[in-house]
Protein backbone atom coordinates (compact mmCIF):
# COMPACT_ATOMS: atom_id res chain seq x y z
CA UNK A 1 0.00 0.00 0.00
CA UNK A 2 1.25 3.43 -0.89
CA UNK A 3 0.09 5.10 2.30
CA UNK A 4 2.42 6.18 5.03
CA UNK A 5 0.01 6.40 7.93
CA UNK A 6 2.60 6.01 10.64
CA UNK A 7 4.98 8.63 9.41
CA UNK A 8 5.05 12.28 10.28
CA UNK A 9 2.55 14.42 8.40
CA UNK A 10 3.90 16.26 5.38
CA UNK A 11 2.74 19.73 6.30
CA UNK A 12 3.21 22.75 4.05
CA UNK A 13 4.58 25.66 6.01
CA UNK A 14 2.94 28.96 5.26
CA UNK A 15 5.57 31.15 6.87
CA UNK A 16 9.06 31.21 8.33
CA UNK A 17 7.70 32.00 11.78
CA UNK A 18 9.02 28.76 13.25
CA UNK A 19 12.60 29.83 12.61
CA UNK A 20 12.45 32.76 15.00
CA UNK A 21 10.77 31.53 18.18
CA UNK A 22 12.12 32.09 21.65
CA UNK A 23 12.50 29.12 23.99
CA UNK A 24 9.91 28.79 26.69
CA UNK A 25 10.26 28.06 30.34
CA UNK A 26 10.26 24.37 31.18
CA UNK A 27 6.87 23.08 32.32
CA UNK A 28 6.43 21.41 35.69
CA UNK A 29 5.14 17.85 35.58
CA UNK A 30 1.85 17.09 37.28
CA UNK A 31 3.26 14.34 39.46
CA UNK A 32 6.25 12.02 39.73
CA UNK A 33 5.69 8.33 39.06
CA UNK A 34 6.49 6.07 41.99
CA UNK A 35 10.07 4.91 42.08
CA UNK A 36 9.31 1.23 41.92
CA UNK A 37 11.64 -1.07 40.00
CA UNK A 38 8.71 -3.22 38.89
CA UNK A 39 6.50 -0.27 37.98
CA UNK A 40 5.96 0.49 34.27
CA UNK A 41 5.72 4.21 33.95
CA UNK A 42 3.14 5.50 31.45
CA UNK A 43 3.50 9.24 32.06
CA UNK A 44 5.82 11.47 30.00
CA UNK A 45 8.15 8.55 29.42
CA UNK A 46 5.43 6.64 27.58
CA UNK A 47 4.46 9.81 25.74
CA UNK A 48 7.80 10.17 24.04
CA UNK A 49 8.62 6.52 23.64
CA UNK A 50 10.81 6.15 26.72
CA UNK A 51 10.04 3.78 29.59
CA UNK A 52 11.91 3.76 32.86
CA UNK A 53 12.04 0.69 35.03
CA UNK A 54 13.18 -1.65 32.26
CA UNK A 55 15.48 -4.57 32.65
CA UNK A 56 18.26 -2.64 30.97
CA UNK A 57 18.06 -0.06 33.69
CA UNK A 58 18.28 -2.73 36.38
CA UNK A 59 21.60 -4.28 35.45
CA UNK A 60 23.09 -2.85 38.63
CA UNK A 61 22.11 -4.19 42.02
CA UNK A 62 18.77 -2.83 43.32
CA UNK A 63 18.62 -0.24 46.08
CA UNK A 64 18.86 -1.74 49.54
CA UNK A 65 17.81 -0.36 52.85
CA UNK A 66 21.32 0.84 53.71
CA UNK A 67 21.43 3.36 50.82
CA UNK A 68 21.87 6.82 52.25
CA UNK A 69 18.70 8.97 52.07
CA UNK A 70 20.63 11.67 50.25
CA UNK A 71 21.39 9.22 47.42
CA UNK A 72 17.74 8.36 47.03
CA UNK A 73 16.86 12.07 47.02
CA UNK A 74 19.42 12.75 44.28
CA UNK A 75 18.02 9.89 42.20
CA UNK A 76 14.46 11.24 42.52
CA UNK A 77 15.61 14.74 41.51
CA UNK A 78 17.31 13.31 38.43
CA UNK A 79 14.13 11.39 37.60
CA UNK A 80 11.98 14.54 37.87
CA UNK A 81 14.39 16.48 35.68
CA UNK A 82 14.34 13.77 33.04
CA UNK A 83 10.54 13.89 32.91
CA UNK A 84 10.70 17.65 32.93
CA UNK A 85 13.17 17.78 30.04
CA UNK A 86 11.30 15.30 27.88
CA UNK A 87 8.02 17.19 28.13
CA UNK A 88 9.75 20.34 26.93
CA UNK A 89 10.32 18.52 23.64
CA UNK A 90 6.63 19.10 22.94
CA UNK A 91 7.45 22.77 22.49
CA UNK A 92 10.46 22.40 20.23
CA UNK A 93 10.13 24.28 16.98
CA UNK A 94 10.56 21.24 14.78
CA UNK A 95 12.37 17.93 14.60
CA UNK A 96 15.80 17.76 13.16
CA UNK A 97 15.97 16.24 9.68
CA UNK A 98 15.49 12.51 9.86
CA UNK A 99 14.32 12.47 13.48
CA UNK A 100 11.39 10.11 14.03
CA UNK A 101 9.91 9.50 17.48
CA UNK A 102 9.29 5.87 18.31
CA UNK A 103 6.01 5.44 20.13
CA UNK A 104 6.24 2.23 22.13
CA UNK A 105 3.36 0.15 23.40
CA UNK A 106 2.07 0.93 26.87
CA UNK A 107 3.60 -2.25 28.33
CA UNK A 108 7.00 -1.82 26.70
CA UNK A 109 10.03 -1.89 28.96
CA UNK A 110 12.71 -0.90 26.45
CA UNK A 111 14.87 2.16 27.07
CA UNK A 112 16.18 4.19 24.13
CA UNK A 113 16.96 7.33 26.11
CA UNK A 114 20.63 7.76 25.20
CA UNK A 115 20.03 7.38 21.47
CA UNK A 116 16.98 9.67 21.52
CA UNK A 117 18.73 12.36 23.57
CA UNK A 118 21.48 12.53 21.00
CA UNK A 119 18.96 12.87 18.20
CA UNK A 120 16.77 15.38 19.98
CA UNK A 121 19.75 17.50 20.79
CA UNK A 122 20.08 18.28 17.08
CA UNK A 123 16.56 19.77 16.90
CA UNK A 124 15.83 23.47 16.86
CA UNK A 125 14.97 25.60 19.87
CA UNK A 126 11.64 25.14 21.63
CA UNK A 127 8.63 27.21 20.64
CA UNK A 128 7.19 29.45 23.30
CA UNK A 129 3.68 28.62 24.46
CA UNK A 130 1.47 30.00 27.20
CA UNK A 131 -0.03 26.55 27.73
CA UNK A 132 3.05 24.64 28.90
CA UNK A 133 1.45 23.79 32.24
CA UNK A 134 -1.79 22.46 30.77
CA UNK A 135 0.08 20.56 28.07
CA UNK A 136 2.02 18.85 30.85
CA UNK A 137 -1.23 17.74 32.47
CA UNK A 138 -2.63 16.64 29.11
CA UNK A 139 0.49 14.56 28.47
CA UNK A 140 0.11 12.82 31.84
CA UNK A 141 -3.60 12.22 31.28
CA UNK A 142 -3.07 10.73 27.81
CA UNK A 143 -0.17 8.53 28.90
CA UNK A 144 -1.97 7.24 32.00
CA UNK A 145 -5.25 6.73 30.14
CA UNK A 146 -3.94 4.54 27.32
CA UNK A 147 -5.71 1.48 28.67
CA UNK A 148 -8.79 3.24 30.00
CA UNK A 149 -12.08 3.30 28.09
CA UNK A 150 -13.05 6.56 26.38
CA UNK A 151 -16.25 8.41 27.39
CA UNK A 152 -19.22 6.42 26.08
CA UNK A 153 -20.71 9.21 23.93
CA UNK A 154 -17.39 10.48 22.56
CA UNK A 155 -17.89 8.95 19.11
CA UNK A 156 -21.66 9.37 18.92
CA UNK A 157 -24.37 12.00 18.84
CA UNK A 158 -25.56 12.28 22.45
CA UNK A 159 -29.20 13.02 21.55
CA UNK A 160 -31.41 10.29 20.10
CA UNK A 161 -33.80 12.86 18.61
CA UNK A 162 -31.16 13.62 15.95
CA UNK A 163 -32.03 10.33 14.23
CA UNK A 164 -35.65 11.41 13.70
CA UNK A 165 -34.66 13.80 10.88
CA UNK A 166 -34.49 12.22 7.41
CA UNK A 167 -33.49 13.70 4.00
CA UNK A 168 -36.42 14.70 1.83
CA UNK A 169 -35.15 17.50 -0.43
CA UNK A 170 -35.52 15.11 -3.38
CA UNK A 171 -39.30 15.39 -3.14
CA UNK A 172 -40.63 17.71 -5.85
CA UNK A 173 -43.99 19.43 -5.85
CA UNK A 174 -43.69 22.05 -8.57
CA UNK A 175 -43.87 22.28 -12.32
CA UNK A 176 -40.63 22.53 -14.33
CA UNK A 177 -39.55 26.07 -15.14
CA UNK A 178 -39.59 26.98 -18.83
CA UNK A 179 -36.73 29.45 -18.44
CA UNK A 180 -38.50 31.80 -20.83
CA UNK A 181 -37.31 35.09 -19.33
CA UNK A 182 -33.72 34.80 -20.51
CA UNK A 183 -30.36 33.40 -19.46
CA UNK A 184 -28.48 33.70 -16.18
CA UNK A 185 -24.71 33.34 -16.18
CA UNK A 186 -22.69 33.17 -13.00
CA UNK A 187 -18.93 33.31 -12.55
CA UNK A 188 -18.38 32.43 -8.89
CA UNK A 189 -15.42 33.73 -6.93
CA UNK A 190 -13.58 32.42 -3.87
CA UNK A 191 -12.58 28.85 -3.12
CA UNK A 192 -14.55 25.67 -3.56
CA UNK A 193 -16.84 26.38 -0.60
CA UNK A 194 -17.88 29.87 -1.71
CA UNK A 195 -18.29 28.58 -5.26
CA UNK A 196 -20.55 25.74 -4.15
CA UNK A 197 -22.85 28.13 -2.30
CA UNK A 198 -22.86 30.56 -5.24
CA UNK A 199 -23.86 27.79 -7.66
CA UNK A 200 -26.83 26.68 -5.56
CA UNK A 201 -27.90 30.29 -4.99
CA UNK A 202 -27.76 30.86 -8.76
CA UNK A 203 -29.99 27.81 -9.27
CA UNK A 204 -32.51 29.30 -6.83
CA UNK A 205 -32.40 32.74 -8.54
CA UNK A 206 -32.92 31.13 -11.95
CA UNK A 207 -36.06 29.45 -10.61
CA UNK A 208 -37.26 32.68 -8.99
CA UNK A 209 -36.95 34.60 -12.26
CA UNK A 210 -38.08 31.74 -14.55
CA UNK A 211 -34.75 31.90 -16.37
CA UNK A 212 -32.39 29.39 -17.96
CA UNK A 213 -29.10 28.81 -16.15
CA UNK A 214 -25.88 28.65 -18.14
CA UNK A 215 -23.46 26.10 -16.67
CA UNK A 216 -21.56 28.03 -13.96
CA UNK A 217 -17.95 29.15 -14.34
CA UNK A 218 -15.36 29.80 -11.65
CA UNK A 219 -13.34 32.99 -11.38
CA UNK A 220 -9.58 32.61 -11.16
CA UNK A 221 -8.31 33.91 -7.82
CA UNK A 222 -4.81 35.19 -7.12
CA UNK A 223 -5.25 33.78 -3.61
CA UNK A 224 -6.35 30.26 -4.54
CA UNK A 225 -4.43 30.15 -7.84
CA UNK A 226 -6.59 27.38 -9.24
CA UNK A 227 -7.73 27.28 -12.86
CA UNK A 228 -10.26 24.49 -12.20
CA UNK A 229 -13.67 24.99 -13.75
CA UNK A 230 -17.03 23.46 -12.84
CA UNK A 231 -16.45 20.31 -14.92
CA UNK A 232 -13.06 19.70 -13.27
CA UNK A 233 -14.73 19.33 -9.88
CA UNK A 234 -18.40 18.39 -10.41
CA UNK A 235 -20.16 16.02 -12.82
CA UNK A 236 -21.73 18.27 -15.44
CA UNK A 237 -24.14 15.72 -16.91
CA UNK A 238 -25.50 14.74 -13.51
CA UNK A 239 -25.95 18.39 -12.53
CA UNK A 240 -27.88 19.22 -15.72
CA UNK A 241 -30.02 16.09 -15.76
CA UNK A 242 -30.80 16.03 -12.04
CA UNK A 243 -32.07 19.62 -12.02
CA UNK A 244 -33.93 19.33 -15.34
CA UNK A 245 -37.32 19.00 -13.58
CA UNK A 246 -36.55 22.27 -11.74
CA UNK A 247 -34.80 24.59 -14.19
CA UNK A 248 -33.37 24.32 -17.71
CA UNK A 249 -29.56 24.36 -17.79
CA UNK A 250 -27.46 24.86 -20.93
CA UNK A 251 -23.72 24.62 -21.44
CA UNK A 252 -23.36 28.00 -23.17
CA UNK A 253 -25.33 31.00 -24.39
CA UNK A 254 -27.15 30.81 -27.73
CA UNK A 255 -24.99 31.92 -30.62
CA UNK A 256 -26.83 35.23 -31.10
CA UNK A 257 -26.07 36.32 -27.50
CA UNK A 258 -22.42 35.31 -27.35
CA UNK A 259 -21.18 38.39 -29.20
CA UNK A 260 -22.89 40.89 -26.89
CA UNK A 261 -20.81 43.25 -24.78
CA UNK A 262 -22.61 42.52 -21.53
CA UNK A 263 -20.95 45.33 -19.61
CA UNK A 264 -21.83 47.88 -22.29
CA UNK A 265 -25.51 46.91 -22.38
CA UNK A 266 -25.83 46.82 -18.58
CA UNK A 267 -26.09 43.05 -18.18
CA UNK A 268 -22.93 42.61 -16.11
CA UNK A 269 -23.89 42.55 -12.40
CA UNK A 270 -21.08 42.50 -9.82
CA UNK A 271 -21.22 42.00 -6.08
CA UNK A 272 -21.09 45.78 -5.70
CA UNK A 273 -24.45 45.96 -7.50
CA UNK A 274 -26.22 43.40 -5.29
CA UNK A 275 -26.68 43.83 -1.56
CA UNK A 276 -25.59 40.99 0.68
CA UNK A 277 -28.36 38.58 1.61
CA UNK A 278 -30.62 40.10 -1.07
CA UNK A 279 -34.27 39.07 -0.86
CA UNK A 280 -36.33 37.71 -3.77
CA UNK A 281 -38.00 41.10 -4.15
CA UNK A 282 -34.61 42.64 -5.03
CA UNK A 283 -34.10 40.25 -7.95
CA UNK A 284 -37.62 40.73 -9.23
CA UNK A 285 -37.34 44.49 -9.02
CA UNK A 286 -33.83 45.07 -10.39
CA UNK A 287 -32.65 41.93 -12.22
CA UNK A 288 -35.80 40.74 -13.97
CA UNK A 289 -36.14 43.98 -16.01
CA UNK A 290 -32.57 43.49 -17.31
CA UNK A 291 -33.48 39.97 -18.37
CA UNK A 292 -36.59 41.20 -20.17
CA UNK A 293 -34.56 43.88 -21.95
CA UNK A 294 -31.31 42.07 -22.83
CA UNK A 295 -32.27 38.40 -22.43
CA UNK A 296 -29.12 37.75 -20.39
CA UNK A 297 -27.61 38.70 -17.02
CA UNK A 298 -24.09 37.82 -15.93
CA UNK A 299 -23.45 37.68 -12.15
CA UNK A 300 -19.74 38.21 -11.55
CA UNK A 301 -18.63 37.05 -8.10
CA UNK A 302 -22.03 36.30 -6.59
CA UNK A 303 -20.69 35.72 -3.11
CA UNK A 304 -23.42 35.40 -0.50
CA UNK A 305 -25.93 37.39 -2.55
CA UNK A 306 -29.18 35.55 -1.73
CA UNK A 307 -30.87 35.74 1.65
CA UNK A 308 -31.65 32.61 3.65
CA UNK A 309 -35.12 33.97 4.43
CA UNK A 310 -37.75 34.76 3.35
CA UNK A 311 -37.82 32.40 0.38
CA UNK A 312 -40.70 30.41 -1.15
CA UNK A 313 -40.84 26.87 0.25
CA UNK A 314 -40.05 25.12 -3.03
CA UNK A 315 -37.20 27.49 -3.89
CA UNK A 316 -35.62 26.86 -0.49
CA UNK A 317 -36.01 23.13 -1.05
CA UNK A 318 -34.38 23.55 -4.46
CA UNK A 319 -31.35 25.04 -2.75
CA UNK A 320 -31.06 21.93 -0.60
CA UNK A 321 -31.61 19.68 -3.59
CA UNK A 322 -28.76 21.39 -5.42
CA UNK A 323 -26.30 21.20 -2.54
CA UNK A 324 -27.02 17.69 -1.26
CA UNK A 325 -28.02 15.90 -4.48
CA UNK A 326 -27.07 17.73 -7.68
CA UNK A 327 -23.40 18.46 -6.96
CA UNK A 328 -21.42 15.23 -7.28
CA UNK A 329 -17.64 15.18 -7.51
CA UNK A 330 -16.05 13.91 -10.72
CA UNK A 331 -14.82 10.27 -10.73
CA UNK A 332 -11.16 11.28 -10.38
CA UNK A 333 -11.90 13.02 -7.07
CA UNK A 334 -14.33 10.32 -5.90
CA UNK A 335 -11.82 7.53 -6.52
CA UNK A 336 -9.01 9.21 -4.59
CA UNK A 337 -11.44 10.27 -1.87
CA UNK A 338 -12.52 6.63 -1.47
CA UNK A 339 -8.85 5.61 -1.28
CA UNK A 340 -8.21 8.12 1.51
CA UNK A 341 -11.23 6.97 3.50
CA UNK A 342 -10.20 3.33 3.16
CA UNK A 343 -6.70 4.11 4.41
CA UNK A 344 -8.03 6.12 7.32
CA UNK A 345 -10.10 3.06 8.23
CA UNK A 346 -6.96 0.92 7.96
CA UNK A 347 -8.44 -1.13 5.10
CA UNK A 348 -11.11 -2.57 7.39
CA UNK A 349 -14.26 -3.49 5.46
CA UNK A 350 -16.91 -0.97 6.44
CA UNK A 351 -19.37 1.26 4.60
CA UNK A 352 -20.17 4.55 6.32
CA UNK A 353 -23.54 6.36 6.14
CA UNK A 354 -22.19 9.03 3.79
CA UNK A 355 -19.83 6.99 1.63
CA UNK A 356 -22.23 6.34 -1.24
CA UNK A 357 -23.27 10.00 -1.41
CA UNK A 358 -19.67 11.21 -1.38
CA UNK A 359 -17.83 8.80 -3.68
CA UNK A 360 -20.65 7.14 -5.63
CA UNK A 361 -19.82 3.76 -7.14
CA UNK A 362 -16.31 3.88 -5.65
CA UNK A 363 -17.88 3.15 -2.25
CA UNK A 364 -17.95 -0.51 -3.38
CA UNK A 365 -14.17 -0.56 -3.07
CA UNK A 366 -14.55 -0.06 0.68
CA UNK A 367 -16.09 -3.53 0.93
CA UNK A 368 -12.94 -5.18 -0.46
CA UNK A 369 -10.74 -4.69 2.59
CA UNK A 370 -9.93 -7.15 5.33
CA UNK A 371 -12.63 -8.35 7.69
CA UNK A 372 -12.54 -6.86 11.17
CA UNK A 373 -11.71 -10.12 12.90
CA UNK A 374 -9.04 -8.85 15.22
CA UNK A 375 -11.10 -6.08 16.74
CA UNK A 376 -9.13 -3.42 14.87
CA UNK A 377 -10.64 0.02 15.42
CA UNK A 378 -11.43 1.45 11.99
CA UNK A 379 -12.87 4.76 13.10
CA UNK A 380 -11.15 8.12 12.82
CA UNK A 381 -11.56 11.77 13.69
CA UNK A 382 -11.27 14.52 11.08
CA UNK A 383 -10.04 17.92 12.19
CA UNK A 384 -10.35 21.23 10.36
CA UNK A 385 -7.77 23.44 12.03
CA UNK A 386 -8.64 26.92 10.76
CA UNK A 387 -5.27 28.51 11.50
CA UNK A 388 -4.03 29.70 8.11
CA UNK A 389 -2.16 33.01 7.92
CA UNK A 390 -5.09 34.88 6.35
CA UNK A 391 -7.36 33.91 9.25
CA UNK A 392 -4.68 34.65 11.83
CA UNK A 393 -3.82 38.06 10.35
CA UNK A 394 -7.42 39.18 9.88
CA UNK A 395 -8.39 38.25 13.44
CA UNK A 396 -6.09 40.95 14.95
CA UNK A 397 -5.35 38.53 17.80
CA UNK A 398 -1.95 37.64 19.25
CA UNK A 399 -0.65 34.09 19.48
CA UNK A 400 2.44 34.21 21.69
CA UNK A 401 5.01 35.07 19.02
CA UNK A 402 5.90 38.48 20.41
CA UNK A 403 7.14 41.43 18.36
CA UNK A 404 8.32 39.30 15.46
CA UNK A 405 4.87 37.75 15.03
CA UNK A 406 3.18 41.16 15.20
CA UNK A 407 5.48 42.56 12.50
CA UNK A 408 4.97 39.57 10.25
CA UNK A 409 1.19 39.65 10.50
CA UNK A 410 1.08 43.42 10.02
CA UNK A 411 3.14 43.08 6.84
CA UNK A 412 0.66 40.48 5.59
CA UNK A 413 -2.29 42.78 6.36
CA UNK A 414 -0.72 45.65 4.43
CA UNK A 415 -0.70 43.47 1.32
CA UNK A 416 -3.94 41.52 1.68
CA UNK A 417 -6.11 43.60 4.05
CA UNK A 418 -5.20 47.26 3.40
CA UNK A 419 -8.65 48.45 4.54
CA UNK A 420 -8.08 46.78 7.90
CA UNK A 421 -4.72 48.50 8.25
CA UNK A 422 -6.35 51.89 7.59
CA UNK A 423 -9.10 51.11 10.09
CA UNK A 424 -6.48 50.43 12.75
CA UNK A 425 -5.00 53.87 12.14
CA UNK A 426 -8.30 55.73 12.49
CA UNK A 427 -10.15 53.74 15.14
CA UNK A 428 -9.25 52.17 18.44
CA UNK A 429 -9.94 48.47 18.05
CA UNK A 430 -10.45 45.91 20.84
CA UNK A 431 -7.35 44.37 22.38
CA UNK A 432 -6.33 40.79 21.65
CA UNK A 433 -7.47 39.76 25.13
CA UNK A 434 -10.90 41.34 24.58
CA UNK A 435 -11.27 39.67 21.18
CA UNK A 436 -10.33 36.31 22.66
CA UNK A 437 -12.80 36.71 25.53
CA UNK A 438 -15.55 37.25 22.95
CA UNK A 439 -14.57 34.09 21.08
CA UNK A 440 -13.31 36.03 18.05
CA UNK A 441 -9.84 34.50 17.86
CA UNK A 442 -9.25 31.21 16.02
CA UNK A 443 -8.25 28.33 18.26
CA UNK A 444 -4.52 27.75 18.30
CA UNK A 445 -3.24 24.21 17.68
CA UNK A 446 -2.21 24.08 21.35
CA UNK A 447 -5.76 24.91 22.42
CA UNK A 448 -7.16 22.37 19.99
CA UNK A 449 -5.03 19.52 21.31
CA UNK A 450 -5.99 20.45 24.87
CA UNK A 451 -9.66 20.35 23.88
CA UNK A 452 -9.32 16.91 22.26
CA UNK A 453 -7.42 15.52 25.26
CA UNK A 454 -9.97 16.94 27.69
CA UNK A 455 -12.85 15.41 25.72
CA UNK A 456 -11.24 12.02 26.22
CA UNK A 457 -9.79 11.03 22.85
CA UNK A 458 -6.92 8.65 23.64
CA UNK A 459 -3.56 9.12 22.03
CA UNK A 460 -4.03 6.17 19.66
CA UNK A 461 -6.82 8.12 17.95
CA UNK A 462 -6.38 8.33 14.19
CA UNK A 463 -6.73 11.99 13.16
CA UNK A 464 -7.07 13.35 9.64
CA UNK A 465 -6.00 17.00 9.42
CA UNK A 466 -7.76 18.90 6.64
CA UNK A 467 -5.61 21.46 4.84
CA UNK A 468 -1.92 21.86 5.43
CA UNK A 469 -0.97 25.53 5.36
CA UNK A 470 -0.99 26.07 9.12
CA UNK A 471 0.52 29.37 10.23
CA UNK A 472 3.85 28.57 11.85
CA UNK A 473 4.19 25.24 10.06
CA UNK A 474 5.45 22.16 11.87
CA UNK A 475 6.56 24.08 14.94
CA UNK A 476 3.00 25.28 15.57
CA UNK A 477 1.77 21.70 15.30
CA UNK A 478 4.42 20.20 17.59
CA UNK A 479 2.09 19.75 20.57
CA UNK A 480 -0.64 18.24 18.39
CA UNK A 481 1.60 15.78 16.56
CA UNK A 482 3.42 14.79 19.76
CA UNK A 483 0.36 14.10 21.88
CA UNK A 484 -1.48 12.50 18.94
CA UNK A 485 1.13 10.69 16.83
CA UNK A 486 -1.44 9.06 14.50
CA UNK A 487 -2.19 12.38 12.81
CA UNK A 488 -2.03 12.43 9.02
CA UNK A 489 -2.94 14.55 6.00
CA UNK A 490 -3.77 13.61 2.43
CA UNK A 491 -0.15 14.39 1.57
CA UNK A 492 1.11 11.72 3.98
CA UNK A 493 -1.58 9.16 3.10
CA UNK A 494 -1.08 9.33 -0.66
CA UNK A 495 2.02 8.49 -2.65
CA UNK A 496 3.57 11.18 -4.83
CA UNK A 497 2.06 9.52 -7.91
CA UNK A 498 -1.41 9.39 -6.35
CA UNK A 499 -1.47 13.06 -5.36
CA UNK A 500 0.28 14.36 -8.49
CA UNK A 501 -2.97 14.87 -10.54
CA UNK A 502 -4.23 17.27 -7.86
CA UNK A 503 -1.13 19.37 -7.33
CA UNK A 504 -1.58 23.07 -8.12
CA UNK A 505 -5.38 22.62 -7.95
CA UNK A 506 -6.33 23.86 -4.49
CA UNK A 507 -10.07 23.40 -5.05
CA UNK A 508 -9.63 19.77 -6.06
CA UNK A 509 -7.43 19.18 -3.02
CA UNK A 510 -10.11 20.82 -0.88
CA UNK A 511 -12.67 18.46 -2.43
CA UNK A 512 -10.61 15.52 -1.15
CA UNK A 513 -10.62 17.06 2.34
CA UNK A 514 -14.39 17.57 2.04
CA UNK A 515 -14.90 13.86 1.32
CA UNK A 516 -12.66 12.55 4.11
CA UNK A 517 -14.02 15.00 6.71
CA UNK A 518 -17.65 14.32 5.80
CA UNK A 519 -17.15 10.55 6.08
CA UNK A 520 -15.29 10.71 9.42
CA UNK A 521 -16.78 9.10 12.52
CA UNK A 522 -16.26 12.42 14.30
CA UNK A 523 -15.62 15.79 12.70
CA UNK A 524 -14.08 18.53 14.82
CA UNK A 525 -14.04 22.14 13.68
CA UNK A 526 -12.16 24.93 15.41
CA UNK A 527 -14.05 27.83 13.83
CA UNK A 528 -17.82 27.55 13.53
CA UNK A 529 -17.82 30.47 11.10
CA UNK A 530 -15.74 28.59 8.52
CA UNK A 531 -17.73 27.89 5.36
CA UNK A 532 -15.81 24.65 4.80
CA UNK A 533 -16.74 23.39 8.26
CA UNK A 534 -20.31 24.62 7.87
CA UNK A 535 -20.84 22.74 4.59
CA UNK A 536 -19.37 19.54 6.03
CA UNK A 537 -21.45 19.88 9.19
CA UNK A 538 -24.61 20.29 7.11
CA UNK A 539 -23.72 17.31 4.93
CA UNK A 540 -23.24 15.12 7.99
CA UNK A 541 -26.56 16.25 9.45
CA UNK A 542 -28.43 15.66 6.19
CA UNK A 543 -27.11 12.16 5.43
CA UNK A 544 -25.83 11.05 8.84
CA UNK A 545 -29.05 9.71 10.31
CA UNK A 546 -28.20 11.26 13.67
CA UNK A 547 -25.08 9.08 13.99
CA UNK A 548 -22.34 11.41 12.77
CA UNK A 549 -20.96 13.34 15.73
CA UNK A 550 -19.64 16.83 15.11
CA UNK A 551 -17.66 18.93 17.59
CA UNK A 552 -18.48 22.63 17.32
CA UNK A 553 -16.59 24.38 20.13
CA UNK A 554 -18.01 27.58 21.56
CA UNK A 555 -14.86 29.70 21.50
CA UNK A 556 -16.23 32.20 24.01
CA UNK A 557 -16.86 29.47 26.58
CA UNK A 558 -13.49 27.87 25.89
CA UNK A 559 -11.72 31.23 26.22
CA UNK A 560 -13.14 31.56 29.72
CA UNK A 561 -11.62 28.16 30.54
CA UNK A 562 -8.25 28.69 28.85
CA UNK A 563 -7.69 32.00 30.62
CA UNK A 564 -7.30 29.99 33.85
CA UNK A 565 -4.56 27.82 32.34
CA UNK A 566 -2.06 28.70 35.09
CA UNK A 567 -4.30 27.65 37.97
CA UNK A 568 -6.97 25.19 36.85
CA UNK A 569 -6.46 21.50 37.69
CA UNK A 570 -6.81 18.94 34.90
CA UNK A 571 -9.92 17.24 36.25
CA UNK A 572 -11.80 20.54 36.44
CA UNK A 573 -10.51 21.49 33.00
CA UNK A 574 -11.84 18.21 31.59
CA UNK A 575 -15.27 18.68 33.13
CA UNK A 576 -15.66 22.26 31.93
CA UNK A 577 -14.51 21.53 28.37
CA UNK A 578 -16.83 18.52 28.08
CA UNK A 579 -19.77 20.53 29.33
CA UNK A 580 -19.04 23.40 26.93
CA UNK A 581 -18.76 21.10 23.91
CA UNK A 582 -21.77 18.97 24.82
CA UNK A 583 -23.96 22.08 24.94
CA UNK A 584 -23.16 22.76 21.26
CA UNK A 585 -24.45 19.30 20.26
CA UNK A 586 -28.07 20.15 20.99
CA UNK A 587 -30.51 19.20 18.24
CA UNK A 588 -32.69 22.02 16.93
CA UNK A 589 -34.42 23.15 13.76
CA UNK A 590 -32.81 25.73 11.50
CA UNK A 591 -33.08 29.20 13.05
CA UNK A 592 -34.72 31.81 10.86
CA UNK A 593 -32.19 33.57 8.67
CA UNK A 594 -29.54 30.85 8.97
CA UNK A 595 -28.13 28.89 6.05
CA UNK A 596 -29.84 25.68 4.90
CA UNK A 597 -26.44 24.45 3.79
CA UNK A 598 -25.29 24.43 7.40
CA UNK A 599 -28.62 23.82 9.17
CA UNK A 600 -30.64 21.48 6.93
CA UNK A 601 -32.92 20.41 9.79
CA UNK A 602 -35.93 22.29 8.46
CA UNK A 603 -39.17 21.31 6.71
CA UNK A 604 -37.81 22.44 3.34
CA UNK A 605 -34.82 20.06 3.44
CA UNK A 606 -35.55 17.27 5.91
CA UNK A 607 -38.57 15.48 7.32
CA UNK A 608 -38.97 15.04 11.07
CA UNK A 609 -40.32 11.53 11.58
Structural summary, described in words:
- The protein has helices at residues 44-47, 69-88, 113-120, 132-144, 192-208, 230-233, 236-242, 255-258, 280-294, 313-326, 331-344, 355-359, 389-395, 402-416, 418-426, 432-437, 445-455, 473-476, 478-483, 490-493, 496-499, 506-519, 531-543, 555-562, 570-583; strands at 165-167, 183-188, 212-214, 217-218, 249-250, 268-270, 296-301, 381-384, 463-466, 487-488, 522-525, 549-551, 606-608.
- The chain is α/β, with parallel strands linked by helices and 609 residues long.
What would the keywords be for this entry?
six-stranded parallel β-sheet, five-stranded parallel β-sheet, disordered N terminus, about 40% helix, about 5% strand, 25 helices, about 600 residues, alpha/beta, 13 strands
Topology:
Elements lengths: L43 H4 L21 H20 L24 H8 L11 H13 L20 E3 L15 E6 L3 H17 L3 E3 L2 E2 L11 H4 L2 H7 L6 E2 L4 H4 L9 E3 L9 H15 L1 E6 L11 H14 L4 H14 L10 H5 L21 E4 L4 H7 L6 H15 L1 H9 L5 H6 L7 H11 L7 E4 L6 H4 L1 H6 L3 E2 L1 H4 L2 H4 L6 H14 L2 E4 L5 H13 L5 E3 L3 H8 L7 H14 L22 E3 L1
Parallel strand pairs: 2-3, 2-4, 2-7, 3-5, 6-7, 8-9, 8-11, 9-10, 11-12
Antiparallel strand pairs: 1-13
Compact summary:
The chain is α/β, with parallel strands linked by helices. The protein contains 25 helices and 13 strands. Strands 2, 3, 4, 5, 6 and 7 form a six-stranded parallel β-sheet that branches.
Amino acid sequence: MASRTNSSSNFSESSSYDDHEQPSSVPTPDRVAPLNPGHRNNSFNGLLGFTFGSKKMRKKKPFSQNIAPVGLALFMIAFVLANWWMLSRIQKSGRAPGVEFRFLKANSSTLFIREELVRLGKARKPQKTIYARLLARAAHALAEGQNKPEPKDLWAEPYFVASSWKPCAEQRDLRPSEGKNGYIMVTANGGINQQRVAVCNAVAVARLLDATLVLPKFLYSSVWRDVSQFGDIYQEEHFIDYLKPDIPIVRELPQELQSLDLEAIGSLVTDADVVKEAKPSFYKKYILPILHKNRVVHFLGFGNRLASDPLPFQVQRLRCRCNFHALKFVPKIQETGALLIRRMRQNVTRLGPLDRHLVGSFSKSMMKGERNRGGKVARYLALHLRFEIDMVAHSLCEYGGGEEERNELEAYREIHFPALVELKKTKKLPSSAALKAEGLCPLMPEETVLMLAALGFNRQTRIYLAGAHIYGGKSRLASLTTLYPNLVTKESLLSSAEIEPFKNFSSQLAALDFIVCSAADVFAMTDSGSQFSSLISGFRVYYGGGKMATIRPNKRRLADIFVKNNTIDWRTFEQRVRKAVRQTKRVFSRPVGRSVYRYPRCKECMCNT
